[in-house]
Amino acid sequence: MSFLSEEIASQPSLWASSALRDLAGSGDLPKPGERVAVLGCGTSWYMAQSYAALREAAGQGETDALAASEFPADRRYDRVLALTRSGTTTEVLAALAKVPAGTPTVAITADPATPVSDAAGAVVALDFADERSVVQTRFATCALVLLRAHLGERLDGLAADGERAVAAPLPAEVLDAEQVTFLGTGWTFGLANEAALKLREAAQAWTESYLAMEYRHGPISIAAPGRVVWVFGEPPAGLLADLAGTGAHVEHAPGDPLADLVRAQRLAESLATARGLDPDRPRNLERSVILG
Fold it and tell me: Taking every annotated instance into account, which residue ranges of this chain make up the domain SIS (predicted)?
């Protein structure tokens, strides 16, 4: 069994852990009313997208989800939050160094004994969610669960939804698909982006991601029999009917959309294994991007 498979399956129990509930009360995380920038790279950026949408929807303040390499240092923020599993990613460290003096900074990381602890004013450590696989799964979802809990969300059913997502067989139409497109709306757009990244990273698959309402403005042209359109969260009115007309298989699961991401992670691992790839060490990737 791959590390990736083990780490995917461990997520529901980690989401339910008391450690996450305790950390959700951290006074270093964004406070209601603050204008916040959330930085990340790759998977962490997509989790930032989900958090930013949730925070704004909760009325807690303007929140920008930014790729760390594009951080606008001259824009005013009340707090800067960085997500970094390794704590060593060059772009994240460089962005934190650009934050104006006096602006609070905090990093969520799996390894606090890294340079990010010096770069950020405060650190929230999710060391229990660290991973051996290059492909991120549980650190990212634990970070998002932490932030959702900090926003005051009730997540009582999340772990149970996650357990079902781990245990339920994946449909044959998904396992045999030529192509998969992921769609999301609001906070689930970040999940759609992350699901597509997982399939590209681990399985070298042809996969795309779009805002659900934007999908009909061109990308729906690739939908066809033998392909899959996977919708996270509540689909916009009329979308499922439009998709049915394309002949593509539509995948849409009940329950918390974050649990549905677990199924996409499982698909990535399954496809990688079936294609003779190493799901823990994708081609051309390392655990952290460190630029010279």
Answer: 26-163
Contact residues for 215 (Cβ-Cβ < 8 A; gap 6+): 181, 183, 229, 239
DSSP state string for 176-192: T-SEEEEEE-TTHHHHH
Domain count, the chain: 2
For residues 17 and 125, state if they share a domain.
Answer: yes
Q: Among 2, 192, 34, 14, which Cα is nearest to 110's?
A: 14
Maximum CA extent, the chain? 56
Q: Is 271 exposed, middle or buried (0-12, 13-18, 19+ CB in 10 A)?
A: buried
- Do residue 208 and residue 255 come from a single domain? yes
Q: What is the CA radius of gyration of the chain?
A: 18
CA 243, CA 228: separation in Å to the nearest integer?
Answer: 10
CB 223 within 8 A of CB 211: no
- Span 13-46, pLDDT tens digits: 999 998 998 999 999 999 999 999 999 999 999 9
Provide DSSP, 237-271.
TTHHHHHHTTTPEEE---S-HHHHHHHHHHHHHHH
pLDDT in tens, 156-171: 999 999 999 999 999 9
Domain at 120, CATH number: 3.40.50.10490
Domain boundary among 121, 150, 179: 150
Instruction: Tell me, yes or no, if the pTM score tops 0.90.
Output: yes
